[in-house]
Design brief:
CATH architecture of one domain: Orthogonal Bundle
Helix content: 40-55%
CATH topology of one domain: DNA Binding (I), subunit A
CATH class of one domain: Mainly Alpha
Largest sheet: 2 strands, antiparallel
Distance between the termini: 98 Å
Strand order of the largest sheet: 1-2
Order of helices and strands: HHHHHHHHHEEH
Strand content: under 5%
Shape: elongated
Number of strands: 2
Length: about 240
């Protein structure tokens, strides 16, 4: 059996240039992948890989691609590739020193200071701002927000339960289902919405160790909820 001769770096580069642009079979690709395993990468090689992943290997190509819209299929492929190579994981959870924070702050300050926009660009910015103000759900970072008064009441109560360290939790959909089961009426005075506004009352108050689960909540109007105060009372829907 013939001994395999170790190829020099110059020889490998010559073979690479000769094969560049030629379609390779799956068997050849597999052999090349197995041959590369175990070969230590130099720092220069690592830098080239990093620049390639960042899209800055060819500045002219990056300039051509700037501003071009990508299809959903291309975005999906890029997302899968970035997840596979673990892009961004190296910086996750990393703490910065005070000196690094100061440098970043100085670099960001005045970044757009003195930058002049064209009239067309200013018009586009103005139209986009008006559009987002009229319909904030179109913003790419929209996460639901406070859209209704009922949502505001739910978030305020959830914040209060978190501050008191109460156990358990419930969703707004569970609260809406409870109101529907109680026919949208106060459990004490039996008045119905929209004549009143139903609020969440904890049967065992949070200040007395009650939890925030849906089983510890009953719908009461504001007046009845205030009069109950911190008493432990469970009202029955069938009895007035």
């Amino acid at each position: 059996m013939k001994n395999k001769r170790a190829l020099t770096l110059k020889h490998r580069q010559a073979i690479s240039r000769a094969l560049r642009g030629r379609p390779l079979s799956e068997e050849t690709k597999k052999k090349m992948g197995e041959a590369k395993k175990g070969i230590p990468k130099t720092q220069e090689h690592r830098n080239k890989i990093r620049l390639t992943l960042l899209g800055r290997k060819n500045p002219a190509h990056a300039e051509r691609m700037r501003g071009r819209k990508q299809s959903l299929e291309t975005k999906r492929k890029r997302s899968v590739t970035l997840k596979r190579i673990g892009a961004g994981l190296w910086n996750r959870g990393r703490t910065l020193s005070e000196e690094q924070k100061k440098k970043i702050s100085q670099a960001v300050k005045g970044k757009n200071l003195g930058r002049k926009f064209t009239k067309e660009h200013r018009k586009k910015l103005s139209e986009r701002k008006k559009l987002l103000l009229s319909d904030p759900t179109r913003h790419p970072q929209w996460r639901g927000g406070i859209t209704t008064y009922q949502r505001k009441l739910y978030l305020n109560l959830k914040r209060r339960s978190l501050k008191l360290g109460a156990q358990g939790t419930h969703t707004q959909s569970e609260w809406e289902a409870l109101k529907r089961d109680c026919t949208y009426q106060c459990m004490k005075c039996k008045r119905k919405e929209p004549l009143i506004i139903l609020t969440e009352d904890h049967i065992v108050p949070l200040t007395k160790g009650g939890n925030d689960s849906i089983t510890n909540i009953q719908p009461l109007c504001r007046g009845c909820n205030s009069r109950k105060h911190t008493s432990i009372i469970k009202y029955d829907l069938a009895v007035k």
